């Protein structure tokens, strides 16, 4: 076969039968078939890899779309919850309660913020128990915002609820749990692409 070490592409088919014997031509044909099969397999492999890349990208886009929609849904849920918390203490005759003094309004706002802080801690716990690290991180971000607002409240309100410090400490403890869960998920060899996206989004 060494003597057939030629450029098959430049092979002159018209002169083939003039310059080579039948046996040589048969061997050349086998060599050509072998090269064609190699090229065909290489093409299949290339197309297959590209197709896998396309499928992976498509799955990633679908996953990101789902995650984005989940974020929107959770924001709607949180907004609805905040609205319910604001309405909850208003089971009195509004006409008889007017006018409401600024101090009374500030106190009501403070109470709602405390209730929301407790609620968000509970939601973080539930999300972590269900392995929903992205949800837990989102609830924590909102809780952080709520606690920032609480920190700006009047001292007379803060002194009325010493339990608030426990709520704040619990939030920080949950922050560490979220970080640990996300790190654990990223280091896991069984983590899927969707889980990686969820972890990085968190």
From TrEMBL:
Keyword list, A-Z: Golgi apparatus, Membrane, Protein transport, Transport
What GO terms fall under cellular component here?
Golgi membrane; Golgi transport complex
Name its cellular compartments: Golgi apparatus membrane
* Pfam families registered for this protein in UniProt: VPS51_Exo84_N
Membrane topology designation = Peripheral membrane protein
GO BP annotations of the record are: intra-Golgi vesicle-mediated transport; protein transport
Question: What family does this belong to?
Answer: Belongs to the COG1 family.
Return the protein name: Conserved oligomeric Golgi complex subunit 1
Where does this protein come from, organism-wise?
Acanthoscelides obtectus (Bean weevil)
